[in-house]
Design goal:
Order of helices and strands: HHHHHHHHHHHHH
Largest sheet: none
Shape: elongated
Number of strands: 0
Helix content: over 70%
Radius of gyration: 28 Å
Number of helices: 13
Low-confidence stretches: 39-51
């Protein structure tokens, strides 16, 4: 069986060649720029016990213990906002589908010169915008409020431990394992809560969308039709998860380097008088400058490594998760129309268009 009835023209391959060539060229130029700046490749992240950080059972146990602190009980404000986020995501998906179909109908009325259909469509669209706007605003509000609640619970728990048995004094004077406790209690807690809320939203949205589309496609075409789409989403999700795995280690390393750089500056502020006193004798300013920059250079090196990794993963992610997923969706919807036992071949073009949009909606 021939896949294509007509051979592709050479010009149709140009976008693919330009895209891949541009991607490789940018990576090459970025790597050359880093080499000229004297930046070596980032070293593997290893904990003090010599164990490489990774997503394993121990990690999820620790995460579960933290989640128990963030969500102390089933019925609380946190679970309420988590439920609101899920409902808002579902409503936003419905709103997106409705806006696409409504826009298509309005455009069709323009082409058909149906002024009554055009007016009704525009008025209906305008009347629905407040509800759609409320859904989007509620989603952003719930995400922000959930982050604040998480940070409040985690910060209070940490400070209860921090001020217990003189822990704050021991960390600053008797234990040198944590040199940047101020950053861990402030900036890192804020970033962790932000990342956790973002993770919840990013996990919930695909699950809600997948359940919705399976139900819609299954109702219109039978539940065998979405099986290929679901299989592709599962396989592509596992592949992208594997590709994104180093991102956790890169983020942990970034926070470590940020904390070290902040600690060097805090130490300079705390000992500014001594540095100024020994300025002429021991050249204190120059030595502190060298010390500060020596902790800043590895941070810049690591940030460039992270940027290159994000760029590479983003390139692959867009192709797999967006564009190829669209192709699989087209194939899933098109099967009944191309199959001999599918849609009635005696239907008119307008009836086929109606069946198609019924499936898409």
């Amino acid at each position: 069986m021939v896949l294509l009835s007509k051979p592709l023209h050479k010009s149709q391959f140009a976008p693919a060649a330009i895209g891949l060539g541009g991607f490789l060229l940018i990576l090459k130029l970025y790597r050359t720029r880093a080499a000229r700046a004297g930046l070596a490749r980032a070293t593997p992240i290893v904990t003090k016990k010599g164990v490489k950080t990774k997503l394993d059972l121990t990690f999820f146990k620790k995460l579960f213990n933290i989640v128990r602190i963030l969500v102390p009980k089933i019925l609380c404000k946190q679970t309420l906002y988590m439920f609101l986020i899920a409902i808002s995501l579902l409503c936003r998906t419905y709103a997106d589908v409705w806006m696409i179909t409504t826009s298509t109908r309005i455009e069709a009325s323009i082409i058909d010169r149906d002024s009554d259909g055009f007016k009704n469509g525009v008025v209906g669209y305008i009347l629905c915008t407040p509800a759609i706007s409320l859904v989007n605003a509620m989603l952003k509000f719930s995400l922000s409020e959930l982050k604040v609640l998480f940070r409040d619970s985690l910060t209070r728990n940490l400070y209860n431990e921090y001020f217990k048995n003189m822990t704050f004094y021991k960390l600053g004077n008797m234990d040198n394992r944590i040199a940047n406790a101020d950053q861990l209690l402030t900036q890192d807690v804020d970033k962790f809560c932000d990342a956790l809320v973002e993770l919840y939203a990013n996990v919930t949205k695909p699950l809600v969308d997948l359940a919705l589309y399976i139900w819609r496609l299954g109702s219109a075409l039978g539940f065998k039709s979405p099986s290929g789409l679901v299989g592709y989403l599962i396989v592509s999700g596992l592949a992208l998860t594997y590709l994104r795995a180093p991102m956790g280690r890169l983020t942990a390393k970034e926070q470590q380097l940020e904390g070290e750089f902040r600690y060097v500056n805090s130490r300079l502020i705390a000992n500014a008088e001594e540095v100024a006193f020994y300025k002429k004798v021991f050249e204190g300013e120059d030595k502190e400058k060298i010390t500060s920059l020596s902790s800043f250079d590895p941070l810049i090196q690591h940030l460039r490594t992270t940027i290159k990794f994000r760029f590479s993963v983003g390139f692959v992610d867009n192709i797999i998760a967006k564009y190829l997923a669209t192709v699989v969706g087209w194939y899933t919807v098109s099967r009944p129309f191309f199959s001999k036992n599918g849609v009635n071949p005696n239907k008119t073009k307008s009836e086929l268009m109606q069946d198609y949009y019924t499936v898409v909606e």
